[in-house]
Amino acid sequence: MLAISDKDFGTPARLAxxxxxxxxxxxxxxxxxxxxxxxxxAALAGxxxxxxxxxxxxxxxxxxxxxxxxxxxxxxxPASCTTTVEPGMKVHTQSxxxxxxxxxVMELYISDHPLECLTCPANGNCEIQDVAAxxxxxxxxxxxxxxxxxALPKDESNPYFTFDPSKCIVCSRCxxxxxxxxxxxxxxxxxxxxxxxxxxxxxxxFMESECVSCGACVQACPTNALTEKSLIELGQPERDVVTTCxxxxxxCSFKAEMKGSQVVRMVPNKDGMPNLGHSCVxxxxxxxxxxxPDRILKPMIRATIEQPWRxxxxxxxxxxxxQGFRRIQQQYGRGAVGGIxxxxxxxEETYLVQKLVxxxxxxxxxxxxxxxxxxxxxxGLKTAFGTSAGTQDFASVAKADVIMVIGANxxxxxxxxxxxxxxxxxxxxxxxxxxxxxxxxxKSPHIKADYHLQLKPGTNVALINAMAHVVVTxxxxxxxxxxxxCEAADFALWRRFAAEQRNSPEATEAITGVPAAxxxxxxxxxxxxxxxxxxxxxxxxEHSQGSTMVLGMANLAMATGNVGREGVGVNPLxxxxxxxxxxxxxxxxxxxxxxxxxxxxxxxxxxxxxxxxHLDPExxxxxxxxxxxxxxxSFKGIxxxxxxxxxxxxxxxxxxxxxxxxxxxxxQDLFLNETAKYAHVFLPGSxxxxxxxxxxxxxxxxxxxxKAVPPLAGYEDWQITIMLAKALGYPMEYSHPSxxxxxxxxxxxxxxxxxxxxxxxxGSVQWPCNDNAPAGTPVxxxxxxxxxxxxxxxxxxxxxxxxxxxxxxxxxTTGRILSQYNVGTQTRRTANVVWHNExxxxxHPHDAEERGIDDGAWVRxxxxxxxxxxxxxxxxxxxxxxxxTTFHYPETGTxxxxxxxxxWATNCPEYKVTAVQVMPVPARRRQTPGHQGxxxxxxxxx
Length: 942
Ligand code: SF4
Ligand code: SF4
Ligand code: SF4
Ligand code: FES
What we know:
The protein is α/β, with parallel strands linked by helices. The strands form ten sheets. A seven-stranded mixed β-sheet has the order 13-12-27-26-25-14-15, covered by helices on one side. A six-stranded mixed β-barrel has the order 31-35-32-34-33-36. The protein starts with 20 loop residues before the first strand and ends with a helix. One iron/sulfur cluster (SF4) binds near residues 251, 280 and 414.
């Protein structure tokens, strides 16, 4: 069944807020919500009305005049897409007169449309072709000799799609998709009447417009005017497989449209949550890495990292790894080995890695890359509310009146949610942005933040305390909520603390750099503007006080009563596709599945009975502790699934030295990444297209990942872990990932109701999913907090040890860009490099001028732990004193300069604050452990 056969109801559904409207269409009775179009009502009644400019993902426009109908008792032939139902209406969609009118319109369209259906890539999947057949038009009386658009040149500028204006019928579906669905407003209709043409930006090519290549216009186009280049190249797909995007924590649902074992295109799933048919450039187009020639498809081993790799059989590689781990444990002790799970792999794969560590290595030395991103979220939200996860589903933002975005950049890092949020903002919600950098949301088409609190990096806690101060001292506490829902004694202490003068906006202004009046106004808006919701990202967590800030936001939300219903809440935007899931299924060294502490004897017994082993009650090593132990000589072997710690973890010198000190580093990945340079065994992993499993997105939504092609290297990642466990003497008997999920559900109360059968039936579910909530839980803490009463915590601001001074006078903060993903392993191997082919250092014009740095010039960024070179981007997006860069390219080695500082509670690294100096250099000079460079370069870098 192809995506293209999905039924299109013509116009969007309307919510039933009152009695249904009853009417008759071609003699068929139908009842629909008020506000429904006649076109949709007809489709629901099983009556097909021809249409071209309407589609059910967009509000109707009424331009093509094909959907005309007759209504008894009314004159004329209204367009059914723009006419809404009324009680008792009798509508006729077929008559001689209507047929004539429709044929006439269609002939005019055809006269300006190339008649080359047989060679057109859309043949068989083209709405104009279908409608022409439906209204009985094969040829045109008007001929092709008159004025037409047939000779207009194609725009091939976008790497992923073509615009062929000769096939455009100016239905404006693309324009409306770009405006309403994506919110970029990159397209307009230029000219009038017959001269109308679709115009990207200032009538230039797509690549020179504001287009962000989300594909919404391509999706909406009813002809072949906007078409994926992959479809043109490969032809129409033969089948599709519904799966989940392998990139960010939004977790969009897609249909992988296939021809044989080739992906023809990825089409966002119209019925899939949470994206409902929308996508971004990464999920929609950047899947070419899956078949990139750099993929390693054969297992490899080597005795030392100085030796070249040797391709071997799977058996030999697995045996070699197993022997290495066994020898190390015999020689150095049980705790000398461990594992790192991946937030890019499935829940089932992640679960097996932590199971291997606990049940086969017999220790708890397992950690996940979430350590370096959202571990403070787990700690903070569990402490305050009782659950280590966001409170809302994404759809909840549609009910928000005030949206506060802190340390997140949704339009770049979570683009589909960014579009959903922008829709709400265009509809009138107010916006507060707290970020050292002027992210796009601060000002974009039809959106302007009410307040941009441009704080200095590292001062989040001072800012949230100042907002709390305003709330408690200006009588803005929701006393009833706090009385009924929160622990009274903790609240009283917190209230006193927040009210202290040293937490006032005036007192903290010198710390945060945000004018007190702005903080006061923003706090008042948050507390009194109706439903107020917080969305936050790594700009909150990746600090030495990351956990304190999460607690601070939870305090503010509880004090103002903004938890426990739609439109409110505290919501982490997770970076990678399965950060939430990898944490849920027990990747942390102190927790088993469902965030339950390993020291709990009753809990351990349930796992011991299921796994048939004795479990170590002591929490294991966190990632940074593993590195320290490796350098101490007590940690010697590691199994790393799908994580490039040499590039993504802070203070790369330290990480690489630790890896170098180990005797058995096993890397399971798609590519020979930076970490693999230190590996003794390389096990080729599989992409999301090559495996079955589940991902859990930022809103706790568990969605199926389905195998579209067989794994190129022969095994799915979960099967590789099983082979390793077996070679270590512990057989794991699973024939399909569904059985792994069944085990997770058996052992985890919040997952008790999750099964593949349910996921097939419902599409996806949000945990908790159990007897109390068999269909899952979109909004948490309704009525009462998971922990019972909400807990306030004192959030004293303690400045980070990372200070600026004469030697390192600027603060470096890091982030991501739309077209690239994390350390770029995947996106750098796609055409996305046309948008971003290097990391740049954003620097304020004043700071640049002071240092004689021109836009585009090479600069050297030095911190107390290392230095890197990259080119400058002079911009006032960052404030004076602050510089910013991304970390997508290993050539840049951004994390060479980030330090060992970390969050006090969770060890999440302080990526977001590094004191640096920036100076011009004539060309790139690097000092990355993975890229030692020439002796001259190294000398120059010192
Ligand atoms: S490009 Fe496609 S969607 Fe846009 S106006 Fe032309 S036919 Fe309609
Ligand atoms: S690809 Fe997306 S951003 Fe670009 S023009 Fe189309 S809808 Fe707009
Ligand atoms: S928003 Fe995230 S999940 Fe959705 S398509 Fe883009 S990268 Fe994939
Ligand atoms: S579909 Fe109604 S006017 Fe085009």
